[in-house]
Every structure is written in structure tokens, then in C-alpha cells.
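Hi everyone, sorry if this is the wrong subforum. Our group has a chain we'd like a structural model of before ordering constructs, and none of us has done structure prediction before. Sequence below.
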Amino acid sequence: MKKNILFVISQFYKGGAEVSLRNLLQKIDYNLLNVDFLVMNQCCDKGNYSLLDHIPKEVNVCNAFAESQAYSVIKKLKSKFLYNDNDIEKYPRAALDFVRNKHYHFVFHVGEWWSPEFVSNYVSADQKAAWIHTNIAKSINFDDELFFQFFDCFDYYIFVSKNSMDASLEKYPFLREKARVIYNITNAQEIRSMSEEAITDFNFNKEIPIVVTCANVRPEKNYSRQIEVMHKLKSRGINFRWLCIGAQADVAEKNKVTELIRKYNLESDFILLGSRENPYKYMKNATAVAVLSDYESWSMVITEAKILGVPVIATKTSGALEQIQNRHTGILTDFDSEDIADKLQELLLDKQLQTSIKNNLTDFDNTQEILQSFYGLVNSKPAQLKREILYIIDDINYNGGAHEATLRQIEYLISSGHRVDIFSTSVPNIKKRMRLSGVNFLCWRNIKEDNLFHKRLFNVLTDKNIASNQKKLKLVMTYEGRIRKNKSVFDSYVLPGMVKILDQYNTVVVMSEASAFRKQVSRCKAPKKIQWIHTDYNYWSQFNEWTKAVTKEDAEIYRAFTTIILLSETLREKFIARYPELANKTMVIKNIMPCGEILEKSNLVKHRPKLKFVTVGRLSAEKAIPRLIEVFYKLEQENYDFVFEIIGDGPEWETVRNTIERYGLVDKIILRGARTNPFTYVRNADVFLLVSEYEGLPNTIYESFIVGTPVLATRVGGIVDQITEGVNGWLVDNNIESIYSKIRYIMEHYDEVELFKSNLKSYKYDNQEVYQKLNNLFK
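Answer:
Right subforum, don't worry. Here is the predicted structure as C-alpha cells:
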């Protein structure tokens, strides 16, 4: 049975990626494949040469922009019932219609220069691939946040050069399992045939060497450097001409190039011909073809020149290093104009070198090899992912202590050979994705019921790819929401769909005691259901109306969990006092601490003022920073000398800043904001302060101990299990008078600070116990 495949591209004007795709379409065996081809936005562009007329008749083509312009009023009205306004604003109606009611075996998003969202969200397919045609590790125009936002929806990322793939994997290691190489394909027979066409717009003088560049005028093609090279060679007395074939749509770059040509008086020698339908007749008659880009993946021009038997001079881009054997099938050069000039001079003047390269290029054609790579990919079966451990992290991009602790757990589990997936309501940013390389991220789009919820009713009812039971569910959702005005439709009909995903896993871990998905986890069939509690649950659960509402059903929810993890024995005892019936489900596991990293970072700066206090944390209400400022104001009025640095940001930033200004302490209390390396500040302080209203088992206390700084903290949460009074810090009651008295005591007893610092020199945080407990937990 034939397989149905789809290619989706933004525009189809002449360029390396587009010509390669055209060649592939011309070479495909249509006895094996049914091919659809969707061009999203082929606007009228007189400066570019369209390739739409070169697509084989066997291909079902949709020129979405043009077809949408011709839509009748009735068709436009129909689309209002099929698609949301947001869909119509982003994509041509014809594109949405073209893929609707279709299912493909394989779909290809072609091009790294535009978002893969359409293929990700609107195309139904067994497998999806994104085709990358440049070296994204070096491209200054590549938007990795935009492009990889849909990473988890794609099965493959195709590179056209192995070197480009390797460089990209070094920069984006999370690509490794999905990366494949399929080289750009050429049509050797057509190229050779077209090269025989007569040239009528340029007079080739056989006595004068000709260099040809085929590249659109864009910054990475570095036409300016080529002009500098010609200027150098002209100064050396080398007589030749340089023809440049390519679109000139980048007006700013074209003007820059034109001005440089004029500056060096090269108007008659460095000639911008613009776009040409047939560049091969110029290449065939050239002495050399130049591919001198700053970066380039697999270059179509290099392959085409080799087919024509014309020597190529190319900069050492990732693609050229694969395509050219230096001085055997071409000339490789460094990226500076002096080396290019030297190598080009040799190639233009050395007839023996030219002949040798030409002889080595006889009958070059790698078409069949590349086609087999393509068929191999299309015929591959979707990978079956191992469903072992799923972490529920409501917002993966949030930066907080509990989140950091959880990421360390996941990193440890992965290093121990476990497969970990993460469900989050937000798509991970590049920084998080790179840190958690190998993790499969799930989000709302993985829940079928959520997709139904956001689609138009008419679209769902008329979509052949949607099962009848799903259509009935959409009808119920619509009736409940539109007719009965039920405000809990999402909770009642979408969230239960998440349980089907959770059922696939052996272990489901909920990171936060405030997670919106605890109830769904309690209802799933996973053998292990683990809840991690990172705070003083008893205090927090009664802290305000929101926390009371969030936790009101916890007794029932947690009965369905297999394990509830607290960070210290004190926190566990408080939890059991609240829920004694859950005692046998609880256990204590501390957080993993990156001791080596903390020590390394803390040593970056070695400077300490006379007496300094520091705090690190998110500026939120429970951290109670304003009352600490009030304490320091009172001490300042009593002529105590100090510096207090606050590291962090958050919702209380403005309140904290205004409080500092109101008390006139801007010279004494310094707001540093968030820092990627807070440890230098902690190491250089005399005392670390943590006077929160409530806490769990704060990582910041352990971090402070690791770098050798004693801690003053309120007696809340599990802190009593961390600080040993008289050894490494001070505990105070949770009120302003106790905090004030203890800080004043410290200021008057600096010898005690020095003693505690000395004690902490031998402090070691033991991760091994944590590792052992994690290993036992996830057996």
C-alpha cells in the first residue's frame, strides 16, 4: 500500500533548500508514495524565481496564499465555523483546509527559518520530521526558542550535513536521539542538460578567467569579503571577472555590497547578475565556482559544480569539509580574505591544478544513495517510548528552590539509567531543555480532550480523523458550556483525559504540594504515586485562604498515593500530626546538594567587608523581608554598623525597595536582584539570614554551610533539623523582637561568628544517603 506523505514549506523560491526539495520531488518513485505539497506563503516576489512550475504532476500541490486570495464569501464564511479566529489570523484558510480530514504516514516541516507550529498542531501524522538546511550552531538568524518550542511533537530532525549535525548536537544535546542525516539531492541529468544552453546576457572571454558565485545576497554569504578578495587580487595584477547569481531581496545587504564595489572601482569586474532560472550555463563556463560563506551546511552549489566538473573553492564550513577533498575535488580555504585570495590566485593561474581537479570529478552523482536514505526514513516505524517515571511539574520554567531540587533529582535518576518524562503546563525553554537532555516533555497538547475543548464544534463533527466517541464528548462539552453555562467544563471533561496518560507510567511523581494535578494523579492506575512536600505543610496549608482551598481535599487525595516524602523528621512529624492515618505512607528524603559547584562558584570572588549579612531567595510574602529591614533600621538608629545584601527577585520586589527607601537605608541594604551565582555573596558574608514565616527544608541553608557561612533563621519548618545552635548558627522565634535581639547579639559577639565559621570548615553535605534512598524508591 502506498504511503501518504506531506511536505510543508513557507515559500518556494529558488534557493539551496528549495532546489534540493524540488529535486527530491522529481526523483521520488510515485508508485511507492502519494505526495502532498503545501506552500504556505508564496507571495508575489519579483526579485526571486519561483520553483512551483517545476513540481511533478504527480504531486498534489496547495499554493495556500494564492488559493486563499481567491476564496469566495461562502468559503470564508464556512471557515468561521471550522477554525478559531487565532487559526485564521496565523495561517491561510487554504492551508488549514488542505490538511483537514487527512492523515499522513509522514510529514516534513521544511526549513529552520520559520516556526514548525503548523505541522505540530494542525497536521495529523504517524511521524513528523523537521528538515534543517543550515548550520544552526552558527546561524545568527536561528531562533532556537521558537523552533524547539515544538520539539516534543517531532520524531526526527534531519540535517543535510553530518558536520552540521555534529556541531548542532554539541550546542543542543537534546537533539541526539532524533537527529538524522539526509544529504541534499541533485538532478545530475537536468543540470548537465541545462548547462549546455547558450549564454546571451554575458560575453565570456576565453582568455579571461571567470569565477562564479551562486548565492542569494545575504549576510552569511559574505559578499563583502569576496569583493575584498577581488580587490587584493586586482592589486596583485590578476585579471579575472566575478559573476554573482542570486536574489537580492535583502536591500540593506545589497546596498552595502554595491557601495563596496563602487569604492574599489570594480563595477566592470564584480558583477551582480541577480536571480537566474538557469545558473548552470554560467557555472559550466567558469574557471572556478566560489562558495565562500561564513557558515553553510550541505551546499547544493558545491555538488552542482562537481557534477559539471568545475573546480570549487570553498571556505571550511561544516558542509564543505564533507563535500570537498582538499586539492583533490576542490580547494578549501580559511575564512580570512588573505588566505582566500592566495588560494584563489593559485587556482586561477595553475592550469595543472585545474585539470587534476576536473579529472577527479568525472561522472559524479550520489542521487541513488541519498534517495535510499530518504526511503529508509519514510519506511521507519514510530519509536515506542518507554514509560517509566513521570514527574508532574506545573510550570517547568519557574525558578524556585523546590524546582531546583526536583531538577537535581531528575538529573540523578537519568544518570542512574532511569527514563524520566515530565508533564508541565508550559513548554520548557531552551535552558531547561538543554539541562534535561533526554527527557520527553508532555503538555496540554498531549491530552486529546484539551484539543477537543479548543476546537470549533463544526470542525470536530466533520473531521474524519476524530472518533465518534470524541465527537460525542465535544457535543457534551458544548452543551454544558454554551447551554447550561457550566463553568467547570474544563475540570469535568478535560482533566480526566490526563489520567489516561498517567495510567501509562509505572511511577508518577508530583513535585509540589500545591500542584493542580494531584487529584488526577490520585485517580490514575500507576503502581507508584509519589508526592514530594517541600515546605512546612501544617503551617503552609493554613497560611491564607488560597492554601486552605488548595489543601481541603488532601486527606482523601493522599490516601490514594503510595508514598509522601518530607524533607526532614520534624516536617514528617508535623504532617503525621495532621494526618495520622497517612503515617505509614511517609518517608524522609533530603534534597541533593551540588556541593562541588557551590564551592567552585563561591571561590570566584575573595573580598569581605567588616561585617556583612546576606539573604538569598525569592522575594515573596512568606520570606518576611520587610520586617527584617525594620530590624536593621532599629539597629542603625542605635549606631550599629552593617551591610545587608538581598539576592533575589519576585512579587515583593517593589515593597522591599520602597521599605528600604522609606527607612533611608539604601547605602546599608543593597538589592542585588537575581544572580546565577549567589554563592560568592554568601561566602563573603559573615551571616546568612533566613527569617521566613514558614519554610520546608531550605536548600539555601545547606548552601551557606557548604561555603562556610553560619546561618540565623526562624524556628519554622524543618530548619531545626538543619541548624545546630552553638555550632553552625542561631535559631530564633518567629517574631520581630526575637530576630532583632539575636542580630544585635551577633553584632556584639563577632568571635562567635568566627567560631561557627571555623566549625563549618569541616562541614560536608552527604548526598550518598539521598542517592541510596532514591535508588530504593525507584526500584
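For your construct planning: Residues 468-483 form the longest helix (16 residues). The two ends are 44 Å apart (CA to CA).
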